[in-house]
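Per reviewer request, we include the raw input and output of the structure prediction for the construct analysed in the revised manuscript.
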Amino acid sequence: EQQLNYRFHDQQELIGGFSYEDFYALPKTADLPHPFDPQKTYNEQNLFYDGTDNTLPIQLLDANYTNSAGYLQLQSVWNERWSSTIGLRYDKNSRYESTFNPRLGLIYKPVANTVIKLLYGEAFRAPAPVESLNIFGTFTGKKNEKGEYIAKSFRVPNLNLHPEKVRTTELSVSETWQENLTMSLSGYYTEVED
């Protein structure tokens, strides 16, 4: 990740940056009946669930993906009482669609010791492989009337898990009574999709 700051003058500063991440993950799976052989690919391991008479192979999933992001934010001081922040972030995860996320902030100082902030922001969070691809569970060794193995508990992967989109509005009031004593009160409203 790289961040650059440019100050136009005492009242305005532009902050920009970008990041790039490259991931390869082999998420958690069921307990293995023998050690994983790093000389073989994950599909050549010949692994079967305990309690299935070596007939039900353990499914291993992997994920190879990238995250790229770029952002710009302008911070402005308009006068002794008012300042603002406006920003935009672009995210691209190779497993999902790209997204733009705005950020806005308005700061008001009615008196020297009081600060009131009104903030709005959006965020994107792609599910990590541990959330979407984990597979684990155990079988009892018994079968139901259809001949299917019965599991004690099981977690299956969710390949259709979507990224979360978060929108938050916040109102905050801070009061400084002494140099080492400040009290803050904040209220916020957040909506999360997917």
